[in-house]
């Protein structure tokens, strides 16, 4: 390791990718979650598969997985990682006109996958917006956050 702390700045204050070369490889996972708020009619169309563009949740799932794999191209200074698993799921809450988007990423490596899980959730939620915006311009994407992380020196984190 080229220093005693992990930082995105070198000795001159210039932005750099954190050097993780001396970190031990461990099995790591991260789960993120976000919520998409819709109008009741939009929620019903999603549940019934009534969108001409196709199955909204299937397309959003694929987009989320692809987004996780592209994280280092989207977020400056993120390490390119060899993800071993990316999973995007949805929990529908028709009574609240809401869809929870849950993304989990895993690997064995020297750095965590929190950014990949957050990116998977964000891209999946944005895809729901994109596919539904013609009928619902008021869609809201809220509460995107890390809910669980395991592995690495800092161990396990679970949101309260």
From TrEMBL:
SUPFAM superfamilies given in the database record: Molybdenum cofactor biosynthesis protein C, MoaC
Keywords: Lyase, Molybdenum cofactor biosynthesis
GO molecular function: cyclic pyranopterin monophosphate synthase activity
Pathway the protein takes part in: Cofactor biosynthesis; molybdopterin biosynthesis
Active-site residues (renumbered): 130
Catalytic reaction equation(s): (8S)-3',8-cyclo-7,8-dihydroguanosine 5'-triphosphate = cyclic pyranopterin phosphate + diphosphate
Family: Belongs to the MoaC family.
Name of a matching Pfam family: MoaC
Keyword Lyase belongs to the record: yes
Organism of this sequence: Kiloniella antarctica
Assembly description: Homohexamer; trimer of dimers.
EC number(s) recorded for this UniProt protein: 4.6.1.17
Entry-linked CDD domains: MoaC_PE (cd01420)
Protein's UniProt name: Cyclic pyranopterin monophosphate synthase
InterPro entries given in the database record: MoaC (IPR023045), MoaC_bact/euk (IPR047594), MoaC_sf (IPR036522), MoCo_biosynth_MoaA/MoaC (IPR050105), Mopterin_CF_biosynth-C_dom (IPR002820)
Residue ranges occupied by any Molybdopterin cofactor biosynthesis C (MoaC) domain in the UniProt entry: 17-152
Function: Catalyzes the conversion of (8S)-3',8-cyclo-7,8-dihydroguanosine 5'-triphosphate to cyclic pyranopterin monophosphate (cPMP).
